[in-house]
């Protein structure tokens, strides 16, 4: 929310090199103790009840900008 970039490591995720996009599974996020909330136009990923990531809906999808480490 403050415009700063933060790091988050997600574990036990599948990598599919043939896909040209990355997909996040909500159950995978919640298994790692993260919270996920949706409303009409936004998705929030919560860590310790604080917003760790915020994204807005674009063409019926919530797009999260990430970069590989």
Briefly, what is this?
The chain is mainly beta.
Protein architecture, described:
This protein has 69 residues and is mainly β. The protein contains one helix and four strands, in the order αββββ. The protein has one helix spanning 26-31, and strands spanning 35-38, 42-47, 50-58, 61-62. The longest helix has 6 residues, at 26-31. The model has no long low-confidence stretch (mean pLDDT 83).
Main sheet, how many strands, which sense, barrel?
4 strands, antiparallel
Assembly context of the chains: single chain
**Low-confidence spans:** none
Give the overall silhouette. Answer: globular
SS-based class: mainly beta
Rounded average pLDDT: 83
Rounded to an integer in angstroms, the radius of gyration calculated over CA atoms is 12 Å
What is the tally of helical segments? 1
What letter string, H or E per element, gives the SSE order?
Answer: HEEEE
